[in-house]
């Protein structure tokens, strides 16, 4: 699910950047650093507003300046049981991998309806019922997140398409 | 799942109460039973000293997993002795067979969570990586077996096998030398013809801001046809030590529509090891239906499923750009005839380089100092890198950066451009020389100095390994399915006898009848060189262990026996150069075929005992007397170099029982002449016993320089001259106290005489005999060397 969230980021700036464009540089660096990153809880998609940049504080002994920026960002946080749309990235005999934005998901064979078996001889490899439903690389699927695990800076999920209204779009 | 007590419980324990009944649903952490255990505790009474008291304490056991209780395996009052006793069976709703990044893919539970009660780890249930392209996905052993059996059934139905294909130097050759790109773009370049079908792709470096690296990939000749044909018989997998991006890019070149390899690409990013390749990474349960093709045997630990192919070396001197992490490759000199592109030489292999000059006639490797320096750099770097093991993450990062550096170095150094420059120079020189030779013909000169027509390309593309490889793989496939059918019919008969009601397995596929490629293929390979006993000379670098060298192991896998020293049992001497000590020794055995390494490579490559004739090395006339060539008297020359003492004994027996041979019909004049020729002494022409005496003293004189007379040397010569005096009874008149050596010598003499061959050989055999018998006697050795008049080449490494 997407949220707008207020966040805070501390940026350290080398003295060579002190000057008239310092503010631009700080904002540029903020966008560079946080957009697309994952905190382990959510993905920061887009910085939409930077409310306040604190006055810089010189770090004693180094000359670098430290700024704290309060900003608002659109974040994406997956939840267990959430239904999401994803793009299939890789298919193998154990299931398929799909990406929900930056979140990598795996849908195992047990979580795929048995009417859609794995067709190993097909090129590219795919799950297909011989008719309309073909899950191969690049296919769009709607699935339900079953489990989510967060690591430092990373998130993983497993999902299922074995329910009504789920599967190939 | 059957639950046991964790090992942390104080055994023995007595079960006092069962808190749940069968068919009850339990959650994780629910109390299952109560038990008592004995322990000693220290008590501190109000007054008095502390004391140890044995007490019976009670405790409860919590369910480590959720599920439904199937049955109790203990009763109230049972005494449990240790943690091997099963307590309870709980049926789990999910057994977490397939896990992705620490998550169960079925129930979505986090497998990495642990608490006081988790004495076994859920993530240990699934440890096998089965996916080619993802290391996060793991399955349990049962699941892996199930999946693999499914895959095998499918393969059997399609009558296919699995083939694991290596990329670099096996089916393609890649380089980052930008020269190739320039040649490719320049239609007038002399190399344009060779590189015009080289494919290129660009990979970005990990570091941001990098401009990316262009890779140039040359497909092995005949690759398209090879893959097309072989993909009908095999399911193809890529297993490379390159990065994933590299592997995918190469796959796009060799298999543009993905019909051959599909998604079955395993790269170094997923391999799990930087130095080894393991079949179990792809086929964790069994490898009965897997064949590997690779140019390196060591990374597979010479697996029985491996078909080692000759490395494809199109871009001369580049080698394998992804081999940085691997143990240093053992280089062999001149694997191929001069016309074919050559492997880069080790900078320390001076002798090898010498040979190159001779053989190739171009001398490009040895003559180029810049190239030599470059390769020294590279090899030291390689050695540094390969010193450590690949397991350390920091090391891997370090190695990666080293690899980048090496690639950068290759881009900078442009070894190919240098080679071409050198080639041009040589061509020019040749042209100049030609011009000089035909100076009077002005027109000729003009044509020659014009250069264009005479320029040569450094790149040669005449490698036909894949054609023979295709045949071998087809044969392996045939053999496998023949065997399978045989097993199947036999099984059918047995099962019909046993149980007529039993239904045949679906699709007529029976996994138990599957034969093992790892037994079929080695048997086929071993037929190739069975009965061949090899000695290497000038092939394996000095100081290296012969038996662990790649070429020896390769030859052994084809049934050849590799020995260290030349003896009568040896059938082939693989010599890189024509005048090594071993060649000289072997030249004296008419049964030993002295061949160039190309014979071995071709035999191995064709899985066929090639005819030796085209590969025979020209023996210097001094090493092999023409008369000896004519000699074909029964069987090999005897020599005490036979390491097999049994045989020596046996032969001695032969001697004892053998009737004495009349040597009176031996043309002794010829013998003397030959002897004289050998010693370079004109006086021997006289050919009477008198001169023989003088000759004898002379020889002793030679010996004196090194040791006192009266020791071995005179004794030897005594034996020799006795025979020289053309006395047919010499063998019986010799005093017996000289021992078996003498006896053997006599025997040799007799056989020699019987065969009517030259005396020289007798002489040589005897000296050799001394050499070996008095192994520690270096003087005898030196004497022999002097007698044979060997040059410094004689001192050849034990490595051969």
From TrEMBL, chain A:
Keywords: DNA-directed RNA polymerase, Nucleus, Transcription
GO cellular component terms, semicolon-separated: P-body; RNA polymerase II, core complex
Subcellular location: Nucleus
Keyword Transcription in annotation: yes
Primary localization: nucleus
Any one GO BP annotation for this protein: positive regulation of nuclear-transcribed mRNA poly(A) tail shortening
Location of the S1 motif domain: 81-162
A Pfam entry, by short name: S1
A GO molecular-function descriptor: single-stranded RNA binding
Family of the protein in this entry: Belongs to the eukaryotic RPB7/RPC8 RNA polymerase subunit family.
Function: DNA-dependent RNA polymerase which catalyzes the transcription of DNA into RNA using the four ribonucleoside triphosphates as substrates.
Protein name: DNA-directed RNA polymerase subunit
Lineage: Eukaryota, Fungi, Dikarya, Ascomycota, Pezizomycotina
TrEMBL record, chain B:
Superkingdom to which the source organism belongs: Eukaryota
Residue stretches of biased makeup (Basic and acidic residues): 690-703
Annotated ranges, domain BRCT: 524-617
Biased composition (Polar residues): 724-739
PROSITE patterns in alphabetical order: BRCT, FCP1
Location of this chain's protein in the cell: Nucleus
InterPro entries referenced in this protein's UniProt entry, alphabetically: BRCT_dom, BRCT_dom_sf, Fcp1, FCP1_dom, FCP1_euk, HAD-like_sf, HAD_sf
One Gene Ontology cellular component: nucleus
Domain called FCP1 homology: residue spans: 156-336
Annotated segments matching region Disordered: 343-373, 627-657, 681-780
Keywords of this entry: Hydrolase, Nucleus
EC nos: 3.1.3.16
Comp. bias intervals (Acidic residues): 354-367, 640-656, 768-780
Reaction equations catalysed: O-phospho-L-threonyl-[protein] + H2O = L-threonyl-[protein] + phosphate; O-phospho-L-seryl-[protein] + H2O = L-seryl-[protein] + phosphate
Listed NCBIfam families: FCP1_euk (TIGR02250)
Protein function: This promotes the activity of RNA polymerase II.
Name listed for the protein in its UniProt record: RNA polymerase II subunit A C-terminal domain phosphatase
Organism for this UniProt entry: Sphaerosporella brunnea
